[in-house]
Amino acid sequence: MNHGITEALLEKIYEVTKQFFALSTEEKQKYARETGSFQGYGNDMIRLDDQVLDWTDRLYHTTYPKDQRQLKFWPKVPTEFR
Fold first, then answer.
1. Chain Cα centroid distance, residue 27
2. CB-based contacts of 55: which residues, under 8 Å, 6+ apart?
3. SS (H, E, C) 25-67
4. pLDDT at 81
5. How far is it, in rounded angstroms, from Cα 74 to Cα 82?
6. Per-10-residue mean pLDDT for the chain, 82 residues long?
7. Could you give phi then psi for residue 21, rounded to 5 degrees?
8. Phi, psi dihedral angles at 40 (to 5 degrees)
9. CA 17, CA 11: separation in Å to the nearest integer?
10. HSE-up (13 A, CA, CB side) for residue 40
């Protein structure tokens, strides 16, 4: 709330993100993070006793400052992602 991003844009981001995570593992791995890096696609372990799953898929991007963006980790599919 109060961040200046329209509801329509947030909904579009949500839909495109869902499309990315619905892709095959092989396609998602094209954007896998590199060792020692946070950016890119990967899995993180969850270490909570009451957690149903012990892992989570994630896609992390640095967007600001611009000189720290690594576009090689930004998916080309779905095309709207970029």
1. 13
2. 43, 44, 45, 46
3. HHHHHCCECCCCCCCEEEEEECCCCCCCCCEEEEEECCCCCHH
4. 86
5. 7
6. 88 94 94 91 76 76 91 92 84
7. -70, -15
8. 115, -175
9. 10
10. 16
Which uninterrupted H or E stretch holds 10?
helix 7-21
CA distances from 37 to 24, 27, 34 (A): 22, 19, 5
Kindly report whether the peptide bond that precedes residue 65 is cis, defined as omega within 30 degrees of 0. Answer: yes
Q: Which residue has the tokens 């993070």?
A: 33
Residues 52/12/61/29 CA torsion (nearest 10 deg): 60
Residue carrying the six token digits 């890096």: 37
